[in-house]
Amino acid sequence: MSILKVENLKASVEGNEILKGINLEVKPGEIHAIMGPNGSGKSTLSKVIAGHPDYEVTDGSIELNINGKMQDIAELEAYERARDGVFLGFQYPIEVPGVTNIGFMRESFNALCEHQGADLMDEEEFRTFVKTKLPTLSMSEEFLDRAVNEGFSGGEKKKNEILQMLIMNPRLALLDETDSGLDIDALKIVANGVNSMKSKFNSFILVTHYQRLLDYIQPDFVHVLYKGKIIKSGGKELALELEKRGYDWLIEESK
Amino acid sequence: MSFETKINEEYKWGFETNIERDEFPKGLNENIVRLISQKKKEPEWMLEFRLKSFKQWKEMKHPTWQYSKIPPIDFEDLYYYSVPKGTGEAPKSLDELDPELLATFEKLGIPLQEQKRISGVAVDVVFDSVSLGTTWKEDLEKAGVIFCSISEAIEKHPELVKKYIGSVVPATDNYYAALNSAVFSDGSFVYIPKGVTCPMDLSTYFRINAKETGQFERTLIVADDDSYVNYLEGCTAPQRDENQLHAAIVEIVALDNAEVKYSTVQNWYAGDKEGKGGIYNFVTKRGICKGVNSKISWTQVEAGSAITWKYPSCILQGDNSEGAFYSVALTNHMMQADTGTKMIHIGKNTKSTIISKGISAEQSENVYRGLVKIMPSAKGARNYSQCDSMLIGDKCAANTFPYIDVKNPTATVEHEASTSKISADQLFYLQSRGVDPEKAISLIVNGFCKDVFKTLPLEFSVEAVKLIEMKLENSVG
Fold first, then answer.
1. For chain B, which residues make up each domain, given as ranges?
2. Which of A3, A187, B100, B141 is deepest in the core (most CB within 10 A)?
């Protein structure tokens, strides 16, 4: 059974149709990369799957595997999807002044625990738990007590997204241009975080502009999005080809 | 971006206590002023103070400079004195109170019976026009601390009251100060003697219960040389369709090296979603740092009232004295708040800090208005002000009117301001982590208010956080 099944998905924002019929199936253990020129709808796709309220799904379905059953989540609120195992790593993580990083993560973690009927963690237990995840991302404990993303550098923000992902341990992680703005060391660390979580039970969708991320995270599938549609799917070699030849030849081909 | 807003109609303090009352007829005239004074068996000088104030009030006009839209108030259609039957005379033991009143305060979370009292906090409870009594009185007396109703203080400590009442807020200060000075009914009196650190926190709880009754609180706190006190104030009122008036005066005097911390959680009934009913909270609060090295800090969490109009201020007269104002003002639905502070620097090296956080939701209006005045004598004075506004939704408004008047070139005055909006993206970010929208808003708002909440005593800060959460419930969908 798959983890995610998107069929003929159409979505608009303020009346403009951005996604024009997307089909995508993601099975457990798979990593999918979504590539494509600017404005093709890559980020929109990840936001629509995660449930951003600004986007309206006008047609098609988004089915998620919840406790072994495929269920349409298109009508669910973002927080409900998150509790059912969807995680979105933001391209531009948002600052939340005055709220500590660890407090925020515990709020989030306990919301998931409660939903799944698991015991909640108190502050001390949670700190101990989070600290086990820090070395993977080369983060210091000091990050936990700073306000969420406030005053973080670009790289720190992205690492923080991955930390949150490791804490929430989602079944489906959507990473929206997590590699943008990262230097090579930070890129390796972020990839390290993803690889440490990867298992046969979960899957990833990586939205990216560049092949270089895929040097560190091996995708099983690469999809090219153009004007709201997937115009080409292939294996890892497709990304390498795109790196060499750009998108024009594909766009020509798809006409 | 559109926020679908629903309304939180729950105001769990909105019940009414059915109890027999002694009250004077409606309306305001010299006779009513005399009756109040007589009922309280006041000395001649107090009656004179009231009558003079009344005369002054009659000559004043209702101010028009405020930003809030205040409907005309018919001062003839109010009761100026209303007390539960039998409580108007000399205060008895709290244990002898009418069970109905005990039950009321129990319901409000303030048990008054000896065995149930909250330890570490002494409470004075004011019900409409009368103080019902003060807990932990004997323990405080042992430390030399006087904590009683202002009526009792006028009777038992006339020399102290006479010396300080009206010395910080003169009756002529403003329209409502004059009115209060004429008809004030009850409130608290605190005196901390020289060198004493008050052994427990002091607190007054104000409850309005009677219909069509104005509450005219009068509180006076005097901290003598080298003393310290932490004072807390809370308030609630029944849910009604008619507006009610709470016009208070609070005066604080801090002598040499004394420190007074005054915290308020204001939760008067705010009216319904259409703006029907609610309390008009027109208050003059002012402290004077009279002595050297003295400190006064005001912390307020303003979460109730249909209209709030108050500026807890500090006159920094003693050299090296310090004033602080920490405020969270939350307005929702049709509420209006015009609040802020005045810091008047007179002494050398005086210092003031202003941190104001305004949060507006729905169609509410939230105004910060502040004055920092550095007099020519205030050599080396320093002020830091930070005024932040947060908007929830797109129908509300926030305004900031900071006035700065510097008459000494050695002064340093800093002012920072910001306006932010809880954006759909911010909410989506928190939601994408499994946090539901209401919790998301409360996290964002509490983070925004953190610098103020951390100045509150712990239990108060927990209460404040809960209150803000509750007030914002369902305000974004």
1. 21-434
2. A3
Element (H, E) at B281: strand B278-289
- Measured between CB atoms, does B438 come within 8 Å of chain A? no
Alpha carbon distance B231, B315 (integer Å) = 19
Using CA atoms, how far apart are residues A229 and A37, in angstroms rounded to an integer? 12
| Residues of A within an 8 Å Cβ radius of B | 50-54, 77-79, 81-83, 86-88, 90, 93-94, 96-99, 104-105, 107-108, 111-112, 115, 147, 164, 168
For B428, nearest residue in chain A (alpha carbons): A52
Q: What is the DSSP letter of B215?
A: B
**Token couple for B321:** 């004295």
Size of interface A-B (CB pairs under 8 A): 77
The rounded distance, in Å, linking the Cα atoms of B153 and B419 is: 45
Task: Show residues of chain A in contact with B442, CB under 8 Å.
Answer: none
Please, which residues have CB within 8 angstroms of residue B132's CB and are 6 or more apart in sequence? Answer: B84, B87, B91, B94, B97, B101, B112, B125, B126
Cβ-Cβ contacts under 8 Å for A254 (sequence gap 6 or more): A226, A231, A232
- The structure tokens listed for B172 are 């002529």
Task: Name the one residue in this structure whose structure tokens are 């230097």.
Answer: A183
- What helix, strand, coil percent values describe chain A, rounded to 5? 40, 30, 30
Q: What structural domains and CATH numbers belong to chain A? A: 4-98+171-254 (3.40.50.300)
Residue from A79, A90, A99 to probe the interface with B (highest B Cβ count within 10 Å): A79
Q: State how far residue B477 is from chain A, nearest Cα, in angstroms.
A: 11
Q: What is the pLDDT of residues B449-477, one digit of tens each?
A: 999 998 888 778 888 888 888 877 766 54
CA B7 – CA A191 distance, rounded (Å): 45
ipTM of the complex: 0.95
Q: Which residues of A fall within a CB distance of 8 Å from B424?
A: 53-54
Separation of first and last alpha carbons in chain B:
12
Q: What would the pLDDT profile of B369-405 be if each residue is shown by its tens digit? A: 999 999 999 999 999 999 999 998 889 999 999 999 9
Which residues of chain B lie closer than 8 angstroms to A94, CB-CB?
425-426, 429
**Cβ contact B437–A107 (<8 Å):** no
**How far is B355 from B373, CA to CA, in rounded Å?**
16
Amino acid making up residue A216: Y
Share of chain A above pLDDT 70, in %: 100
Q: What is the DSSP letter of A247?
A: S
User: Contact, B383 vs B412, CB < 8 A?
Assistant: yes
CB–CB of B328/B359 below 8 Å?
A: yes
Q: Check CB contact of B429 with chain A, cutoff 8 Å.
A: yes
- B23 within 8 A of B210, measured Cβ to Cβ: yes
Largest CA distance in chain A: 58
Tell me, yes or no, if B470 comes closer than 8 A to chain A by beta carbon.
no
Interface check for B2 against chain A (CB to CB < 8 A): the answer is no
Rounded CA-CA distance B154/B160 in Å is 8
Cβ neighbours around B376 below 10 Å, total: 10
- Residue A212 φ then ψ, to 5°: -60, -30
d(CA B194, CA A203): 70
CA B436 to chain A, closest CA, distance in angstroms equals 6
Give the pLDDT confidence score for residue B254 in this predicted structure. Answer: 98
Question: Residue B53 is which amino acid?
Answer: S
Q: CB under 8 Å to A55, separation ≥6 — which residues?
A: A11, A12, A13, A18, A44, A47, A48
For residue B447, the chain A residues in CB contact (below 8 A) are 96-99, 147
Question: Taking Cα atoms as reference points, which of A206, A199, A108, A204 lies closest to residue A148?
Answer: A108
Query: Residue B363's pLDDT is what?
Result: 92
